[in-house]
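Input.
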Amino acid sequence: MRTFTAIIEKAEEGGYFAYCPEVQGANGQGETIEECCEDLKLAIQLVLEELREEAISKLSSSVICKEIIVA
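Output.
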């Protein structure tokens, strides 16, 4: 379990926009701050999964790949 930062701003067209400075490309939006944060949370998960899959796909078959949990 890891903690990330949500930078939240009011959107000009209404609602909120947020991004995570630790995860490039992860942003969210919503009508409420809560919706915005949930959308950002999903975006962070998707970006990290994509980065993981991309990195693993480039590994040679001779390496050992194990999952670890950071609390």
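The helical segments are 33-57.
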